[in-house]
């Protein structure tokens, strides 16, 4: 059984608001070895025109890791109970910098599901991160490869 193509076009939005704190940004910057002073020092960030410390560009993946459970946890999506998915590509486009004090909301749209190479399927999802008030912050596009699930693939479920 392949992935459920009826999910194409469906959307989900988190009920949770993610509040970005200075400490979360600092911890992330230190854990990833990001050395820029604006990530850890309010004065350095303000000297560059920011209202508070800024998050490294890859900080958006924190929200993705925390809230990226839809649609993959839906029983009727058709995902194999065995680990079979890998990220083939991920792109992040920032519309503005993430700052400490931001209150962010995460939403996901299934953009496409299609066969890939006869045996596999490609699940394309677009995640949008906005402020609580709807201001665009960044867009993330993920291409996940579902291995061996294409309809007609030998060994498909």
Overall description:
By secondary structure, this protein is α+β, with helices and mostly antiparallel strands. The chain has a domain of 97 residues: Thiol Ester Dehydrase, Chain A. The chain has three helices and six strands. Strands 1, 2, 3, 4, 5 and 6 form a six-stranded antiparallel β-sheet that branches. The longest helix is centred in the N-terminal third of the chain and has 11 residues.
List the helices and strands and how they pair.
Blueprint lengths: L10 E3 L4 E2 L2 H11 L9 H6 L12 H8 L17 E10 L8 E14 L3 E12 L4 E11 L11
Antiparallel strand pairs: 1-4, 2-4, 3-6, 4-5, 5-6
Concise overview:
The protein is an alpha+beta fold. It is 16% helix and 33% strand.
CATH topology of the domain at 12-19 and 58-146: Thiol Ester Dehydrase, Chain A
Mass-distribution shape: elongated
DSSP E strands, number:
6
Could you give the order of the helices and strands?
A: EEHHHEEEE
Query: Briefly, what CATH class of the domain at 12-19 and 58-146?
Result: Alpha Beta
| Rounded radius of gyration (Å) | 18 Å
Strand content: 25-35%
Percent of residues in helices comes to 10-25%
Number of alpha- plus pi-helical segments: 3
Classify the secondary structure makeup into a structural class: alpha+beta
